[in-house]
Write a structure and sequence with these properties.
The structure is a single chain. The chain is of the alpha/beta class. 42% of the residues lie in helices and 14% in strands. The strands form two sheets. The protein has a six-stranded mixed beta sheet with strand order 8-7-6-9-11-10, sandwiched between helices.
Length: 496
């Protein structure tokens, strides 16, 4: 054909029979070849191809490939002299390489068993019974058990549900706290009032609902000074059991002091040799003198040398002296009353504590009073336990905060987000108890603890139950040196 007809042939190509266009059509022909290409090739070539296929042994027949692979094979097996367009010569293959054009056709090797041709995607294999096994899952530790602690105090009803984590530590799963003022009017009548008992029962019903929805391994539910001092305290405990299903235990004052110390053990500075820890409650205030020697126990309560429980708290003291309108004179009167109670406590003086520990002496306060002072000192827009718990306050800062609160009237105290109307009439009575303690044991610094009896209950239960020991790996046998290192890490975790 003359060369001048080349342009006409290019214009007719969309409806023609070029191998490149046919291979892109994707229509299957014989042995996967496109039908358009099959019709366009000369009959002589078709016969030659059929004879070559018939000459192949049946056992060596190539495996079926996809339509795209067949088109690939068709386009690259043209004989020498076959004219192809530039677009067909430079068309890309399946792996992104230009198709090779030469004198000899490219052949596709027949795959061996378990292999596939190069550039052809693997077809999904049928599932077999031996491949349906469940995937191997490494054995994991069982979930940590849950422990619950409830503290029904003179002013608050508190609940904590937690699970042990690192040695000496736990993670809180659920919590509840409500001001119930169970000891309201107790100082004057010696009995729990009907309204106070009703408020407490309603709060305890909420706690019972939380406990009943969880699988609790161990729990301990206690009541403190209000139930301990009231004439009808035992009757009230019976009513609680009937209406809520909770059996509360009325603990003595020594147990309360030890639990307060256990709850704050992680806040004792590691360099400290002696501590005075106090818990200002609603109906009583517990004070413990702690002396730590060279052999420091993992349980801080084992280092208590002296303790006392003052029969005064923020509720009882504010009811006797008035909590809404407090003047500097009435404040000093409350301080002196508490000082008289402390004079009867046969505890060591601050000089004796400092001489034995050098500079390693400080106070730890765990109560709503000290946490309120810390919140006011930080000028928090709302109370934040994470910023308050463990905060250090200097002696001057504590004095400044007490003077600031004393200068506020009742409305100003109630408007402060860290005090609120529920505690506005109690906070200055707590400051008076704190001032009496500071005068007995002056210290340059005090640490704030937003924790107490509940944390002590959880710590003791987990330690008695060996919850942290079970959490240690048992896969490898420990040598003497490794066991000693592990005990040291566990001991330090209690003080973190």
């Amino acid at each position: 054909m003359p060369r001048g007809g080349k342009g006409k042939r290019r214009r007719r190509r969309p409806s023609g029979s070029s191998s490149a266009i046919a291979s892109r059509s994707g229509l299957p022909g014989e042995a996967g070849r496109p039908a358009a290409l099959e019709e366009a090739e000369p009959a002589r070539k078709r016969k030659r191809r059929r004879r070559s296929k018939a000459a192949r042994p049946q056992s060596q027949a190539p495996t079926a490939v996809s339509g795209a692979a067949a088109a690939h094979e068709t386009s690259i097996t043209d004989k020498k002299g076959q004219k192809r367009s530039k677009k067909a010569r430079h068309r890309r293959g399946l792996q992104g390489r230009p198709l090779t054009s030469g004198d000899k056709p490219l052949t596709v090797e027949r795959p061996a068993d378990g292999q596939r041709p190069r550039g052809v995607s693997a077809a999904p294999q049928p599932s077999r019974k031996d491949d349906m096994r469940a995937p191997h899952v490494a054995p994991s530790e069982p979930p940590a058990p849950l422990y619950a602690a409830l503290d029904l105090g003179t002013n608050n009803c508190r609940l904590l549900v937690a699970q042990p984590t690192r040695p000496g530590q736990f993670r809180v799963v659920d919590a509840f706290s409500r001001i119930v003022r169970l000891g309201e009017g107790l100082g004057a009548s010696g009995r729990l009032s009907d309204d106070a008992m009703e408020r407490s029962v309603e709060a305890l019903k909420i706690c019972a609902g939380k406990l009943n929805t969880r699988s609790i391994r161990r729990r301990r539910l206690i009541a403190t000074e209000a139930a301990r001092a009231a004439e009808n305290g035992a009757i009230f405990m019976k009513r609680v059991a009937e209406e809520t299903g909770l059996d509360l235990e009325i603990i003595d004052r020594e147990t309360e002091a030890r639990l307060a110390v256990s709850g704050c053990s992680s806040l004792v500075d590691r360099e400290t040799k002696s501590v005075v820890l106090f818990d200002i409650g609603g109906g009583s205030s517990e004070i413990a003198v702690i002396r730590i020697g060279d052999n420091r126990s993992s349980r801080l309560a084992n280092h208590i040398t002296h303790w006392t429980s003052l029969p005064v708290g923020v509720v009882t003291l504010s009811e006797r002296h008035g909590g809404e309108h407090v003047t500097p004179q009435s404040f000093e009167t409350m301080v002196r009353e508490v000082e008289g109670m402390l004079d009867r406590f046969d505890g060591p003086s601050v000089e004796a504590l400092e001489s034995a520990s050098g500079s390693g002496f400080h106070l730890i306060g765990t109560s709503g009073t000290v946490t309120t002072l810390a919140g006011v000192h930080l000028d928090l827009p709302r109370y934040d336990r994470r910023r308050v718990d463990g905060l250090w306050l200097s002696d001057d800062e504590v004095s400044a905060m007490q003077a600031r609160l004393l200068s506020w009237d009742f409305a100003a105290r109630a408007a402060n987000p860290c005090i609120g109307p529920d505690r506005a009439d109690l906070v200055l009575a707590g400051c008076a108890i704190l001032e009496a303690i500071r005068r007995r044991w002056p210290s340059t610094r005090m640490r704030v603890a937003d924790r107490g009896l509940r944390e002590g209950l959880l710590t003791d239960m987990m330690a008695d139950d060996g919850a942290w020991r079970r959490g240690r790996p048992r896969r490898h046998q420990r040598g003497p040196a490794q066991a000693g290192d592990e005990r040291q890490r566990s001991h330090e975790g209690n003080k973190a």
